[in-house]
Amino acid sequence: MMVEGSSVAGWNWNWLAEPSTPAEIQELWDCLEVLPSRVSEEKPNRWTWKPKGDDRFTTSPYQELCATNFNVQLPFVMEWNRWVPMKVNLFGWKAEMCRIATSDELFKRNAVDEIKWCPLCEGEKESSDHIFLSCYVALVIWQFISSWCKVPLVYAFEFRDLLTTYLGIPENKRKAIQSIILIASWCIWKARNMAIFDNKRVSVNHLKEDIKRYSFLWVKNRGKLVGLDWEKWCSFSF
After folding, report:
1. What is the tens place of the pLDDT at every residue in 224-234?
2. Has residue 218 been placed in a domain?
3. How do residues 110-157 score in pLDDT, each as one tens digit?
4. Contacts of 202 (CB under 8 A, 6+ apart)
5. Residue 176 lies inside a defined structural domain of this protein
6. What's the domain range around 175?
């Protein structure tokens, strides 16, 4: 340790740990080359607000500056759905952030040697966008949901679009549609895992049945829709 007031090239320093490695010493001399052009007066430092012109900060010019010169984008915040279990909400949240273990994400993390083919359709390399948006199985599922729930066909360019497509649905069915989309995504992922780990070929018909069955069970009980029965759910008339 160096004592307070020790001098290097005319500067006084308070070291927590003295530079000792060649890299640290080089960084110190690089710093010394820059300091003379940055420190010109011996007086206390202070904060100044340049846009205002008189060094004083006020909120109004800051708001004007943000409105005119900055393109501020708020981060996407997923709307969680209490009608589905926490594991389904968590899956949707992770999928939107590309945090599920698709082959391309594992490849980015050096966990696998190559990006593998989609186990559902075997037509393209596996990625989150492919599995949920462009895979043949996913396209069939979104068409099925559109027909079953009597809503416009789901078009999505990224997973986030799936999580917001329900916003244009009439309010009395909005929560149910959001639940179905989350559950359908979760079921597609389950089918993908079974194809990989259990060597089970995906059945689109079974996948449709699982989506209807899980969504009916969870929406009826967690949404406390006492009058909802299976027949009404299958015709989506409630």
Report:
1. 998 899 999 99
2. yes
3. 899 999 999 999 999 999 999 999 999 999 999 999 999 998 887 888
4. 119, 120, 137, 191, 192, 194, 195
5. yes
6. 86-235
